[in-house]
Write a structure and sequence with these properties.
By secondary structure, the chain is an alpha/beta fold. Helix content is 46%, strand content 11%. The protein is built from 12 helices and 8 strands. The protein has an 8-stranded parallel beta sheet with strand order 1-8-7-6-5-4-3-2. Helix 8 links the parallel strand 6 and strand 7. The protein is globular. The two termini are 28 Å apart. It catalyses: (2S,3R)-3-hydroxybutane-1,2,3-tricarboxylate = pyruvate + succinate. This is Methylisocitrate lyase. Its cofactor is Mg(2+). Pathway: Organic acid metabolism; propanoate degradation. Catalyzes the thermodynamically favored C-C bond cleavage of (2R,3S)-2-methylisocitrate to yield pyruvate and succinate.
């Protein structure tokens, strides 16, 4: 039954694996999962971790990514996803859902949900999508207090606290570098600089900061797509593909729905659908059947 109803790897071991990955010298690839089934697929294919995007979670609720989701919603989805995968899960915790004390509580709730790490950002609350205009960042000192509160609340020392800065597009790269250094001094284990544009900017940031770094390879944003091998050669430690799976799924769903609407049948779409056998394989139906048979495989005695 191990690993069937839930992951066989403990939350502590997943966090230790995340820490080891950050120190390995190899790029840790974390595609976004919009549900637990996608997380299972990410693990099966061989990625190193799973990412949960705040923008995706908002979009699933048909909300824009402007800080409308709550800690309860985010932690609940995070727990559902972390439960099914042996991979470490990194989750977007926005600005910590409030003031420094709220950021501290956020860390404890996410730890209890089995998450391996979270990132907190230096935007003004309520936040904005990192690749859109209209953002504003809090003073460095305020973000430092946010991070110190989060670090002080951490019970598992392997829980990774990542500091995201949106300052590059507002105050410039030099200011973002200074913020990154201050955030590392405040206890951040990983630095996420949003909306860098070119490999040269990623290289500049890597040369200036000694802390492990995360690259965001989202589509249709300000950063040009950079191959994983290039990011690894630059010296980045983690790359996230936050919205890729949702965009793929929504594109396919819209195209299919429009065809059904236009033709009155899904018969022309079957070669673009996951077959039942593949879904059952991901769900491990056969193992459930075997478990069910083992539990109920008995005969009643004459006196029963």
């Amino acid at each position: 039954m191990t690993g069937l109803l839930a992951a066989s790897t403990s939350a502590a071991d997943k966090r230790a694996a995340f820490r080891a990955g950050l120190a390995s010298g190899r790029l840790q690839r974390f595609p976004g999962a919009f549900n637990p089934l996608v997380a299972a697929l990410i693990q099966e294919i061989g990625f190193e971790g799973v990412y949960i995007s705040g923008a995706v979670l908002s979009a699933e609720l048909r909300l824009p990514d402007i800080g409308l989701t709550t800690l309860t919603e985010v932690a609940g989805r995070g727990q559902q996803i972390a439960r099914v995968t042996d991979l470490p899960v990194l989750i977007d915790a926005d600005t910590g859902f409030g003031e420094p004390m709220s950021a501290a509580r956020t860390v404890t709730v996410l730890e209890d949900a089995g998450i391996a790490g979270c990132h907190l950002e230096d935007q003004v609350n309520p936040k904005r999508c990192g690749h859109l205009d209209g953002k504003a960042v809090v003073p460095t000192g305020e973000m430092v207090r946010r991070l110190r509160a989060a670090v002080s609340a951490r019970r598992d020392p392997d829980f990774v606290i990542c500091a995201r800065t949106d300052a590059a597009g507002i105050e410039g790269i030099d200011a973002a570098i200074e913020r990154a250094r201050a955030y590392a001094d405040a206890g951040a284990d990983l630095i996420f600089t949003e909306a860098l544009r070119t490999p040269a900017e990623f290289e500049r940031f890597r040369a200036a900061v000694t802390t492990p770094l995360l690259a965001n390879m989202t589509e249709f944003g300000r950063s040009e797509p950079i191959p994983a091998a290039t990011l690894e050669s630059i010296g980045y430690n983690v790359v996230i593909y936050p919205v890729s799976t949702l965009r793929l799924a929504m594109y396919a769903a819209e195209a299919g729905l429009r065809e059904i609407y236009a033709t009155g049948t899904q018969s022309g779409l079957l070669d673009r659908m996951q077959p039942r056998s593949r879904l059952y394989d991901l769900l491990r139906y056969q193992r459930y059947n075997e478990f069910d048979s083992d539990i109920f495989d008995f005969t009643l005695g004459k006196d029963q």
